[in-house]
Amino acid sequence: MVEVMSRLNGDQLSCWERDGFLVVEDAFSAAACETLRARALDLVDAFDPTDDVSVFDTNDQSHAQDDYFLGSGDQIRFFLEEGVTDGSGRLTTAKSEAVNKIGHAMHDLDDVFDGFSRDQTVESIASDIGFIDPLLLQSMYIFKSPRVGGEVTWHTDHTFLWTEPQSVVGFWVAIDDATVENGCMWAVPGGHTGLPRRRFRRDGSGGTTMDVFNPDPWNIDSAVPIEARQGTLVLLHGSLPHGSGPNTSDKSRHAYTVHVIEGQSVYPADNWLQRAESIPFRGFQPRS
Ligand code: FE2
154 CA to middle of ligand 1, Å? Predict the structure, then answer.
């Protein structure tokens, strides 16, 4: 195995272990962020929501939406904000503002996203925090557009990207400056040490369900905003409660996130995100 250069110092690793998140400034250049933004906007340009009218119309679409979401683990798909289409799937707002996010396999299907996701910095940090056989599980380009971008309610990523034992870590990158004003993330420092409270999974009959082990709401009294300038990388432990408010400002808040899991953990067959055999999860090594 090739030796990977270290990127985090001892203080940073201590913060990571104590807080369950870590802010790494200047992990990506402005140019790299702008290249990723341009590619995401190109993908949105090429997306025609009327092609997916059964998914995006407003009548009885929950089954089609389930299929569209559950089939996105090895695809590049587009997820819209609430209430931005009419009954025939036509957008009622500009397409670039109507898209909530793109997911979930750009890092394996698109060269620009592949290169960004497998940047040396990400690989080094994954090694620094203890991954032995890191696998890039999913990617999301999040738009959180001005005045339209919705809130993300409090959750942990382990709930949705379950492994045994827990291993998922989010590598979140600010493509725009993220501030309290435009809906930055919030997290509870140290909240990653609690037991799992929920697990979202396939229900075996084409839908999904949420197992609830502990119905208590998160105690978010000690939550802190994670403001981040463009190019900042925020590491998020899979058991850390986090969320973000809506973007009520006039400022864009694009972000990109890749979730990494440990290849030596068990990845359950009833996790919502599954891959076709022809496109297995891949680590940081180049495509063969
Ligand atoms: Fe999350």
Answer: 8
CA of 186 to the centre of ligand 1 (A): 10
Gap between the Cα atoms of 230 and 232, Å rounded: 6
Radius of gyration of the chain (CA): 18
Give the pLDDT confidence of 202-248 residue by residue, as tens digits: 999 989 999 999 999 889 999 999 999 999 999 999 999 999 999 99
pLDDT in tens, 139-173: 999 999 998 888 899 999 999 999 999 999 999 99
- Give the predicted TM-score (pTM) of the model: 0.94
Whether 80 shows a pLDDT value over 90: the answer reads no
* Distance (Å) from CA 87 to ligand 1 centroid: 30
Whole-number Å distance, alpha carbon 213 to ligand 1 midpoint, is: 19
- Strand spans (E) along the chain: 21-24, 76-80, 99-104, 134-142, 152-155, 169-174, 185-187, 198-202, 208-212, 224-226, 233-237, 242-244, 255-262
Q: How much distance in Å is there from the Cα of 286 to the middle of ligand 1?
A: 27
Instruction: Please indicate, yes or no, if residue 2 is contained in any of the structural domains.
Output: no
For residue 76, the CA-to-ligand 1 centroid distance in Å is 19
Give 243 Cα–ligand 1 centroid separation in angstroms: 7
Domain assignment of residue 234, yes or no: yes
180 domain-assigned: yes
Going from the Cα of 259 to the center of ligand 1, the distance in angstroms, rounded, reads 9
Quick: pLDDT tens for 83-118. Answer: 787 766 678 888 888 899 999 999 999 999 999 999
Residue range of the domain that includes 97: 10-262
Distance 101 CA to ligand 1 centre (A): 13
Give the amino acid at 70.
L
CA of 203 to the centre of ligand 1 (A): 21
CATH number at residue 227: 2.60.120.620
